[in-house]
Design a protein that fits this description.
By secondary structure, this protein is an alpha/beta fold. Helix content is about 45%, strand content about 15%. Bound molecules: phosphoenolpyruvate and magnesium ion. The site of magnesium ion has 5 residues, from helix 17.
């Protein structure tokens, strides 16, 4: 985007700024900026020796108070919000931080505030160096620091002030403790300059249902108090829109959201084309939740998430006990099991190597079988045992496949156990040769999260690269299109199980390309189903053709919405 594109001119379309859409929905309200307290000085006069123990005790008491507060907020909430707050509470009393602060106070006489500021600085550098998920937690670390510092200084707890009227909250980035306590009737939209689709802001907004856009480049141009129209589906913010027009848009959006609550599956376009909507799950509990909703089955069972803490490989019996409840949640329906996707942001002690400089491009997914072939054969045995005798289909797919021999070998291993074999399309090499790959396997499922990361050469967890890690990027759409065409030609199913499937507008484009199933967080199924049921297959196909002309992600979104008649 050029500077000219993004200059703010009240009431004109040209003044609209864009970011990465995270939670759809519209909001029209004045802006409230969240201001983070400025960091305290890095140095201060040393504390006399006889006061150092008391100084450390003051730090410990403050850290414990902050942790307690965060934990009590965690106990008053549920799901992702609660988990995220628990993690922040753990940061407040982290043993490594405590040790470093203690040493700085007792040995050097550094005052508690400066000891914590210096220690946090060191940890921030470490987190940034580690990259990926760790780098995403930097905002959390700084937030916890600010809370403990305020507590030591006897100041009020920092955070987002409660607005007096419904407002759209703008921030550089938001920490879990900022977002978790928000009242969705007063904070009716959120936009941040940083943050990615997997950041805590995004996770919490999804749960609270607050329309949200992250990675908005020119946000600082819009001052507090200015009225904006935020469109969380399109990722746009219009300052000073025509008030009447904005009100109509917001009302129409609210009516649409209300209709989603009534939606009943299965998903069919207005001209009767069925689209299989499935859920992404990680264990029996999430599978059961999916079965209580409108899902027709499971399109991605992320098995590795059950083993993140395991130090040794679980036995076949232990694995069967984990897989069976997932199958039991959908006894009559399809369940697609993904074999262990160990490595990169999900390292598993018993499967991965000690250290890799570039783990996203390293030994992850199916590649771990090079050193540990028994891990896959044991897992496939366990899946075969856990699914024996069920009525529903059991499909098994491998993550991070890149070569034809890998696909051929994996398919044989799966077929030997009487199961249906597929691979994920996460590496551009597979999309490019999709037709060849499909001759070896029974189905493919496109993992748009990794496919986008590898196509755009952009870390999917980076809060600075959300513009690149956007599945609407034309190159990503092209690779999906190639894969869907191959599926049509060979008459084999092509699913999508990355986050792209949960975007209602993109879902229609995928259907238009020829994708046969969409798998997503079960909370997104109704929204996607309602959108698919509101358009015809012909419109979806027109949208799939229209996006081919797009120069950038935001243009692809606009072309698709136009073709689908979404205003
Ligand atoms: C993907 O890459 O799109 C995918 C579904 O796998 P994961 O997000 O678990 O890497
Ligand atoms: Mg993946």
């Amino acid at each position: 985007m050029t500077n000219e594109d993004s200059t703010v001119h009240p009431n004109t379309e040209a003044s609209i700024i864009f970011g990465t859409p995270v939670v759809s929905g519209m909001a029209y309200a004045p802006v409230m900026w969240a201001v983070r307290p400025s960091a305290p000085a890095l140095t201060a006069p040393a504390i006399p020796e006889d006061s150092r123990e008391a100084e450390f005790a003051a730090y410990e008491a403050a850290a414990a108070t902050v942790a307690e507060r965060l934990l009590s907020r965690s106990n008053n909430t549920i799901g992702a919000v609660s988990d995220v707050l628990k993690m922040s509470a753990a940061l407040a009393t982290d043993k490594g931080v405590r040790r470093a602060v203690r040493s700085a106070i007792l040995k050097e006489g550094t005052p508690a505030v400066q000891a914590l500021v210096q220690t946090t600085e060191t940890f921030v550098e470490l987190f940034k160096k580690a990259g990926g998920l760790m780098a995403e937690r930097v905002t959390d670390l700084l937030d916890v620091r600010d809370r403990v510092v305020a507590q030591i200084q006897g100041l009020p707890e920092p955070g987002v002030p409660t607005p007096e009227e419904p407002s759209v909250l703008f921030a550089t980035d938001l920490a879990p403790a900022d977002t978790s306590g928000l009242d969705p009737t007063l904070v009716i939209g959120i936009a941040t300059e940083l943050g990615g689709p997997t950041s805590h802001t995004a996770i919490i907004c999804r749960q609270l249902g607050i329309p949200c856009i992250v990675a908005v480049r020119d946000l600082e141009q819009i001052p507090a108090g200015e009225r904006v129209l935020l469109d969380g589906a399109e990722g746009s913010i219009q300052p000073n829109p025509d008030p009447e027009r904005a009100r109509i848009d917001v009302e129409r959006d609210a009516a649409w959201r209300a209709s989603i609550l009534q939606w009943q599956g299965p998903a069919k376009t207005t001209d009767g084309h069925h689209v299989e909507l499935l859920s992404n799950v990680q264990d029996g509990t999430t599978a059961k939740k999916a079965a209580d909703g409108q899902s027709e089955g499971i399109g991605l069972f992320r098995t590795e998430l059950s083993f993140l803490e395991a130090q040794v490989e679980p036995t076949i019996e232990e694995q069967v006990a984990i897989y069976k409840p997932v199958f039991d949640a959908f006894p009559q329906n399809k369940v697609v099991v993904r074999t262990l996707d160990a490595g990169s942001d999900k390292p598993i002690a018993y499967a991965n190597m000690e250290h890799e400089d570039n783990p996203a491009l390293g030994v992850r997914g199916l590649r771990i079988t090079g050193q540990n072939p028994q891990i896959l054969s044991h897992q496939l045995d366990a899946v075969a045992q856990a699914s024996a005798g069920r009525v529903g289909k059991t499909w098994v797919m491998a993550p991070m496949v890149a070569t034809l021999p890998e696909a051929e070998w994996f398919a044989k291993e799966v077929h030997d156990r009487g199961l249906t074999a597929g691979i994920m399309v996460e590496v551009p090499a597979v999309a490019i040769l999709a037709e060849h790959f499909l001759t070896y396997v029974d189905f493919v499922s496109i993992g748009t999260n990794d496919l986008t990361q590898y196509t755009m050469a952009a870390d999917r967890l980076s809060s600075h690269l959300a513009e690149y890690t956007d599945p609407w990027q034309p190159a990503v759409l092209k690779l999906i299109d190639i894969t869907a065409q191959a599926g049509k030609k060979l008459n084999k199913p092509v699913g999508v199980c990355g986050e792209a499937a949960a975007d209602p507008v993109l879902a229609c484009v995928l259907v238009g390309m020829g994708v046969t199933s969409l798998s997503m967080a079960s909370s997104a199924v109704s929204m996607v189903g309602a959108q698919i049921s509101a358009v015809s297959l012909e419109q979806c196909e027109a949208a799939a053709v229209a996006v081919r002309a797009a120069k950038e992600a935001k243009e692809a979104r606009a072309l698709a919405r136009h073709a689908l008649g979404i205003l």
